[in-house]
């Protein structure tokens, strides 16, 4: 089994290669079950895509856990890391619920040591290293969710994907600030 690499391209490419989530899956993920029920259709493809997304959420949760337990974070950044991890846990829970509702089986979470290897936790030597890892993961999540939006004909479904992307973008920009790095200089910096 190949490990998922925590790069912006990996999140974007998994969505691009699969064509994104169907309208049914995003409707359910966005809490619009009545809308999803009226759409019908085969959901097996969506379950596969959602399980990849779930695997990435597990990885993000673990990365924040590793950072929090490292002892490398000052109190302020630690508080932010715990907040962002809680939001990723909410994404995880929504994905699991959606997969269950679609009749699929959620992918199992890996061990913490497997996630530590995936994100190369042994290379984290200081607070900057931890924050840079989180920044890379959040940028990847931003681009992945933005990659879903063009797949929808229904504007409400595109809005749900946009809201998730907005959460990820907020995480990314907050982490840039914590690193003392400037915000992106160019318009249309995300999702390309």
Task: Please describe what this structure looks like.
The chain is mainly α and 192 residues long. It has a single domain, classed as Up-down Bundle (Ferritin). The chain has eight helices and no strands. Helix 1 runs parallel beside helix 7. The longest helix has 27 residues. The N terminus is likely disordered.
Rounded mean pLDDT is: 77
Topology-level CATH name: Ferritin
DSSP strand count: 0
> Which stretches are poorly predicted, pLDDT < 50 over at least 5 residues?
1-20, 34-39
Number of helices: 8
Task: Summarize this structure briefly.
The chain is mainly alpha-helical and 192 residues long. It has helices spanning 8-18, 23-29, 33-37, 44-69, 75-101, 112-118, 127-148, 155-179.
Q: Which secondary structure elements does this structure contain, and how are they paired or packed?
A:
Blueprint: H1 8-18, H2 23-29, H3 33-37, H4 44-69, H5 75-101, H6 112-118, H7 127-148, H8 155-179
Helix pairs in contact: 1-4, 1-7, 2-8, 4-5, 4-6, 4-7, 7-8
List keywords for this structure.
192 residues; mainly alpha; Ferritin; 68% helix; globular; disordered N terminus
